[in-house]
Each structure stands twice: as C-alpha cells, then as structure tokens.
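LAB NOTEBOOK - FOLDING QUEUE
OPERATOR: T.R.
BATCH SIZE: 2
PURPOSE: Compare the predicted structure-token outputs for two unrelated chains run back to back under identical settings.
PRIORITY: normal
REVIEWER: second-year student, initials M.K.

ITEM 1
FIELD SEQUENCE / FIELD STRUCTURE:
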Amino acid sequence: MPIWLQAGSWGLLAGSALVLGAAIGYFANIPDRLVAGVMAFGSGVLISALSFDLIEEAYNLGGFDATIIGIFTGSAIFTAANWFLTRSGAKHRKRSNHLQKAEKEQSENGLALAIGALVDGIPESIVIGVSMIAGGTISMVTVIAIFLSNLPEGLSSSAGMRKAGRSAKYVLGLWLGIAFTSGIAAVIGYTVFSGFSPNVIAATTAVAAGAILAMLANTMIPEAFEKVHDFTGMIMVAGFMTAFILTKMGG
C-alpha cells in the first residue's frame, strides 16, 4: 500500500473515533460527569503525546528555533480561529450540556460548529501524515492519543447537539464529514511536506502541536473541569501516564 494511502487510513481511523463517540453520545444517555471524565482522560493522553512524541520529534529535526517558532505560531493560529468561532456561535461546541444553542435560536450555529470541529481536528490529522515522512511508519502512540481524545470530543459535542434539538442525521453526518476530512488532512500532511527540509517538517509538527495544546486549554479542559471539578487533575494524570507508558513501550 502506498505510504500516502497508509497516512490517509491512519488519519481516518483516528477520526472515526469522532463518529463512534458521536453515536454513543447521541443515542445513549451518558451522564455528563462521565463524558467530562473521559474528556479529562483524553486531555492527559494528548498532553503526554505532545510532550514525549511531537515536540521531541520537532526538536530533533529542527532544534529550538523551528520548535519554538512553530509551537507559538500554531497556538496563535488556533487562538485567532477559536476567537472568531466563539463570536460566530461555536463557543460551546464541545459542551455536553444545554450551553449549545439550538438552530432556531441561532441559525448559523451549525456551520460554526462544523468549522470548529475542523479547526480542532485538522492539526491532529496533519501530524499523522507528517510523522510518516521520515521512515514511512506511523507513531502508534500519536494515533492512539488522537483516537482517545477524539472519542470524548464526539461524545460530548453530540450529546450537546442532541439537547440543542439537532437531528441524528445532522449530527452523524457532521462527524462523518469531519472523519473523512481527517483522513484527507493526513494525506496532505504526508504528500505536501514530504519534499520539504527537516526544518520545515519540524516547524510544521510544532505548529500542529501548538494548535493542539491551545485547543486543550481553550476547550477540552474547561469542559472537563466544569463537571468533575477537583477530580480533573487526577483523571488527566491517568491519561498522561497511559500515553507515557505506551511511548516507552513503543520506544
């Protein structure tokens, strides 16, 4: 199988967690605290993957300059996009409670939610493709981390969409589209950047890592803390250590 197709397949697999989580969140009556707990665990997993996989890889390829410039650029891009989405009606796109507005209250909110999901997911998927450039092999820890973080994202958002009055067709269609886009983004990450220098690849990896870290701080962790409060830190540590162990086992 061509490497670009492998990258797309891994991106689609990681993105499929959004669809799985969305189906569970929409059709099953999952308690908000459980959703938030899974969100906290997924946040810890992603932070660990960023620390011991993505940032380390960016540093090894491009040194401090590429890593620092990339991570601040990524966080700035996400922050600007998130600010725009907040003003457009997608502030609570990951919320499982009644904070999401119904379509009849704000008709453009559905589009903002879709764009918000893309903004959240594309950096993760590009990382999958970029990580395969060096040797044509995937970082399984990165895929697992993204999968575990996508699951509660789809679960939480779809539960909130259901309470906001959106149909199953709308919700599942949205997340199916995002999942396929994740696969495409992974292909782009591999094909577009495979011809660039190690410094560019390092900076790209760091940009994606910075965007993911900003996303965690702005969306996932606040959702978790709102429901599980004092237990958020402990659950995040459990997720962090799970990914850390997987990193060491894989290395």
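ITEM 2
FIELD SEQUENCE / FIELD STRUCTURE:
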Amino acid sequence: MSGHNVPGDDSFRLKAAAAAVAEVRPGMKLGLGSGRTAEHFVRLLGEKVRAGLEVIGVPTSERTAELARELGIPLATLDEVPALDLDVDGADEIDPELRLIKGGGGALLREKIVAAASKRMLVLGDPSKTVKTLGAFPLPIEVVPFGLQATRIAIEKAATRLGLSGSIALRKAKSGETFITDGGHFIFDAAFGAIPDPVALSGRLGDIPGVVEHGLFIGLARGAIIAGGGELTILGSLG
C-alpha cells in the first residue's frame, strides 16, 4: 500500500531525503526506514559511504536491509547497536503535532522499535502527507494470526467507545494471499476516518492482547522535512 500520491512526488521525496542526509555525521548509528522516501535516503547515504563516510545502519525491514547491503552500507542489528543517533523514515500521514500514521508498507513494528531506540527521528514526506487530523489513510494494526476474529471484534469495540467506526480489512498481498509481515503477523487496515484523539485510540489498541502494534506513532518524531513546490518545509526541529 502507498500513501496519497501527487504528480512528481518522487522528486519531492528525493529533495527531502537529501536534506536528511545533510544531518548525518561521521560515526553515527542510523535507523534506516522503509518505503519509497526512506529508500531515497538509503541510496543517497550509500553514495556518501562509498565516498568515505563511516556510519552503521540498522534497517527496519528486510527490503531496506537488502538495499543497504547492495549499496555497501555497514549494517548491524538493534541487539548489537541498541542505541541509535538518528532514525530517518517516511510516513503515510503527519499532523501538526508530528503525530504519524505509518505502516502502509507493512513494517510498522520494526519501524516503531527502531524509532523508540533513537535519540531523534526525522520524517520525510511531501505536502500530500501533511494533514490537520490523522485518519484519511487507513490505520494499520499488526495482529497475531491466532484469534483473529476475536481481535477484530475487540478493535471494533475499542473504536466504538471513541466514536469511531469503519471497515477493518485484513490486508492482502499482491498475490491475493494474506499479507504477512517480517515478524510473521497479519495486518488489519482500519478505515476509521478522522481520528480526533489519536492518543486515546493508541491506548485502547495497546490494551488488546491480539494487537502486536499499531501505526500511530506518537511522541517519536522530532522533526519532519516536507519537500514540495520547489521548497523544503521543516516541521518541529532537525536538531
């Protein structure tokens, strides 16, 4: 799945990624995010590494790990490097308080673990990703396969208590089979629409035993680099 697309948004992603690479310093331990925007960052970082920049990357998905290896970026696991200096990732939605919806690519669990282990998280995006209220993009909720329908019902009840409703669809892969995350879990995409209180929803979802993680990233992003219309907009702080 991808976020909202706008014409030429790939060039926007490249500009945002270049601005993020400028924040990288020699010796940094980096979280390498997933998705198209993050891949631009990884590719540009690879160029810097080939030119002599010494960094260590911790990838948030198998796809990112494969790309980083191809580019010659030294990699480590989060067990080997449990504290990171900087995490650079994309987002499906970004609100004015730097709260995010992530997980369109299916890597939300590892992305959130890496973000939480980082001193600062920078989010890359284009103007189509910025919203006043989260929720136009369906919220990914990663769940264990066991007890799937019981978990779906619990999610519906939690949403109803907060005045939210909408379809909760089990994500399918392009093959038509059920989508399976790198961690071996399934994903429900919850089309709740506008989420007025993402903090409350985050808490409710976190209380459901079958929910492994969800795509609400709250209090993790330090800053966002939004590229569009020929200019860069910084939300929050890059430092």
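REVIEWER COMMENT (ITEM 2): Confidence is low (pLDDT under 50) at residues 1-8.
FOLLOW-UP: none requested
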